[in-house]
Every structure is written in structure tokens, then in C-alpha cells.
Amino acid sequence: MKKISNTEIIKDILMNNLIRSEALKLIVIPILISTVIYSILEITISNRLKELNAAVEMKSGEISALKKYVIQILIVAILTEVNGFVFTSVVQYIYRTMSKSSFRLFVSLPPAQFNKFGGGEIQTIIERKSRSASELIEIFVTNLLPIILKISFTLFSVINNMGSFAGYIMSICVFIYGALTIGIAIWRANIRRELNKAENSTCNKLQDSLINHETIVTSRTVEYEVQKYDEYLMKNENISTKLWRAFYVLNLFQRIIFLLQSSLIIYAGLLGYLYYDLSPSQLLFLTSIVATLANNLGNVGYLYTRYTQAIINARATYDTISEIKEEIKDKELYGFKKNIKFSKIFFNYENRKVFENVNFEIKKGEKIAIIGKNGSGKSTLMKLFLKFESYNGSIFIDDINIQDIKEDSFRNLIGYIPQNTFLFNETVKYNIKYGLENVTDEEIFSLCKKFCLFEVFSNLENGFDTNVGERGKLLSGGEKQKILLMRAMLRKKEIMILDEPTAALDKESEKNIIELILEDKERTVMMIIHNLELVNKFDTILYINDKNIQKFKPELVNRQDSGKDFSEVVDIKI
């Protein structure tokens, strides 16, 4: 796959976040105009200083010249800070919108694609893309553009006041200054990476020693551990010294360049190469404008380091996101009418075959119990139907391949309760009605009463407003499972996929809840169960065994050991 270039990344960020945004244009265009104005004014402060000096020498118009000088400095200061004050909202807005769009991209991925990424990896990608986009825009608009403008206006002003030869000298010095600064910045960046690795190693060594404190004390190896830790610290010390020495070397060379620049221009004036003979006013002008230029070029190294880091982060995220293929799906489903078909399904998990040429059909309204040994593929079968895993073969709903159905249309048909009960760090009520903002409290209470769960939630510390904690850690397994059940039932989906939804419930609650789930004749249910006492409540059994699936009626299951987990009972009469 062709990698996107740095230029294309920058163009994409600027186009999508600034140029194509009408709202941001209303802010950015005035900021750009203001930047041009204050850049011109900042450079021409040297002219005002020159005029002030001449007025003082002539003892005429000193107050007027001083007013112009002070007012111009004040205007530059105000425009500079107002630009930053206003543009920071643009930077933060871009950070937010990039985070939002990246988050939407990942959470809207089909699970099969989503599962290719780790949670930490996704978090890092979102953070890096958002930060790199906002930083690159900030660098170009508020840092690089003013520097380019001020260099240009400085050269123009020097040529206008002192001649083209002075401008030629200054141009060469600015070029050498920039090249040297960027070169040393690259050198320091490599040292910084080396230091980061050394600091990580030192931190790991420190953690290792602290964790094994008792072993160190009982083994009487305190001095040995201190010596080992000091070896890591010495490496950090040497690299840090090298890093800071590079900084001071850079400062020295920058000072030398500006010294040579001023000296050469003054020497050229003494030799008569400038427009006018050198005067105190011109020397003051030169000193002032060189100081202004030095002040603006002082952050070039830091700016280049920021740019390099931002473009590295942007490239990493763009390369990753470009690998995400957006599949075009055009089929809509407005309801479930006939059947679900699994046709020639093959699925491998890593190097292990799970399903081999699986074929079966489920009719609308059919209640299916899925049974089989632990690890046989019961949960996997559900994940294939839910498009959580990639597979070979075809699965159809009403003769339409599920891979061709639009995601929203497909998900709108299905209610799902996973085996692992993860909840949001919110209230019980929030978790039950999640995604259904128009549902009233009365509807929630009524549903819970129907399933005899109203008192379960009411008796919690704050009733339905009780916070469940991170991933529901403040609730028992049974309470978490009941919340997921209520969430699924509240949606009233035509197809219900239930992965051991009652595993954490007592036998009586399990029996009552399953009867209520199965009572709707129009609802199609696929449920994994382990308790053989429950199979007679279903229309059909899917038995998963030896990479295949057998379908039969409940009465063919030998329930002489009813009540046991199915992993212990595999005697089935067909």
C-alpha cells in the first residue's frame, strides 16, 4: 500500500480543518490579516526608533516621535496576544473535532475490524491524531507564518534603509542560522530518544528493586542494588549532560552568527558598500532590527522539534487509519420475515479449526437452545452471526447476505446479551436505558416488575440511581446480568442473541426469566444454555460437536442428569 507523504498529510489537515470549515474561516482569516499587520508593525518599530533618535539629535518633534514609537509597540503587543487569545479556541476545537471523528471511526467499525486493534492502541491513535492535527495547524498559523513574514519584512526593511548588499549579507546569515539550528535540533532529538530509553530502563530497574525489597533485605544485597541503580543513573547523567551541552553549543553558534551579521554589515558600511554613510541612527536601526530578528528566530529549533514530533505522530495514525477499509453496503432490512440461513460456514481461530462446512436454518419465531462442550464454539457461532468475526461462507437473513446489509439496519434487528457483563460507570437506570433516551422511567419500572426485578434494583443503596462503578464492579454478577437482560428486553428486537444470559442467576430466577424471554411468539431467540432442565422450553436444539452442528428437537436430549452443566452431560440420542 502506498504511504501518504508528509505534504499530503499537511494538506489534508489544513483543507479539512481550516479551509473547508466556513465557521473557522470567519476566525482564521481575520487572524491571518492581523498576523500580517502586526508582523509589519513589529519590523517597522526599528524605523520608529531611528526616527526617534533623529528627532532627539535635532531637538525637534521628540514627543511626537516617542508617542509613535510607544503606540506602535503597544499595538504589536495587543495584536500578538489577541491573536493567541482567539486562535487557542481554534486549536482546541480542532483537537475536539479530530478526537470525535477518530472515535466515531473506531466505534462504528464492524467488530471483526475493531477487534484487530487493542483498546490501548485505539486510545493512542485518537490522542496522537488529534494532538498532531491541532499542533501542526498551530505551528503553521501562529509560529511559522509570522516567522516567514517577519524575515521577509526584515530583509525588505534592511534593503530599503541600508541597501541590497546589507540584505544579501543578512539573507546568507539567516540561511546559515536556520540550517545550523535545524541540524542541531535533529541531533538533540536523537539524544532525547536515547535519554528516554535510558530513563525507562532506570525506572524499570527502580521498580524491580522496590518490588523485591524483602528479598534484597534478607539477602543483604542493599549495597549491590544501590551500585546497580547508580550505574543506570550514571548513564542518564552522561546523556543528559550531552543533551544540555548541545543546547549551549547551539546558543553559542547562534550568537556568533548574529555577531558576524552585524559586524559584516557595519564593515560594509565603513567601506562604502551601503546606500548611505553609516550614522548613529542607522546603527541604532541595525541593532534594533537584528534584535527583533534574533528574538523571532530563537524558537526555530524548538519549532522544528515540535513539527517533527507532530508529523511523526500524524504519519503513524494516517498510515494505520488508511488501512481501515470502508465497505459499501447498500441493502436495507425493514423487518425480519422468513428465516436465517448458515451456508457452508468455515471458521478457524488462529491454527485451530472451529467450524467446518456448517449448514442450518432457523425460522422466524423459532426458539433455539445452543448446547455443547466448553470450547466447542457456542459463543463463536453467535459472534459469526453478529459479524464480530470474519469467516468463510454465507449467512443470510431473508435471503440477503448479512455482509451486504447496512450496519444500522442490521443492528436494528438484533438484541444481544454477551457472556461477559461489562457496564458503563453510570447509574443502574442509565445502563438499562442506554441508547434509548426517549424511554421513560415508568417503562423501565414496568419492565422490571414484569420480570420480578424491580425490588432487586430498588433495594440497592440509591435504587435505580445507584452508580454501578467501573465495569459494574460495585454489583454482583447476578445484578449485572439482570441489568443486561432488562436493557435487551427494553429494545424489543425481533432477533435475540443471548450468550448464557442467566448463568449468574439462581435456578428459580433463571427459569422464570427464560419463560418470559420466550413468550413472544414472533421473536426469534438463539440462547446458549448449560442447564439441561431448560431445553424443553425451546423449539429446537443446536448441538455443537466436532466442528459441526446438529439440529434436533428437545425431546431427543437425554435429561436423566438434568440440572448438571452440559459440559458434564454429552449423551444425546438422535
UniProtKB/TrEMBL annotation:
SMART domains: AAA. Gene3D superfamilies: ABC transporter type 1, transmembrane domain, P-loop containing nucleotide triphosphate hydrolases. Keywords: ATP-binding, Membrane, Nucleotide-binding, Transmembrane, Transmembrane helix. The chain crosses the membrane at residues 23-41, 69-95, 136-159, 165-187, 252-276, 282-305. It is found in: Membrane. It comes from the Eukaryota. Residues 73-309 form the ABC transmembrane type-1 domain. GO terms for cellular component: membrane. Residues 340-571 form the ABC transporter domain. One of its GO terms (molecular function) is ATP hydrolysis activity. Its main location: membrane. It is a multi-pass membrane protein. InterPro entries: AAA+_ATPase, ABC1_TM_dom, ABC1_TM_sf, ABC_transporter-like_ATP-bd, P-loop_NTPase, Type_1_exporter. Pfam families: ABC_membrane, ABC_tran. PANTHER family: ATP-BINDING CASSETTE SUB-FAMILY B (PTHR24221), MITOCHONDRIAL POTASSIUM CHANNEL ATP-BINDING SUBUNIT (PTHR24221:SF503). This is ABC transporter. It comes from Vairimorpha necatrix.
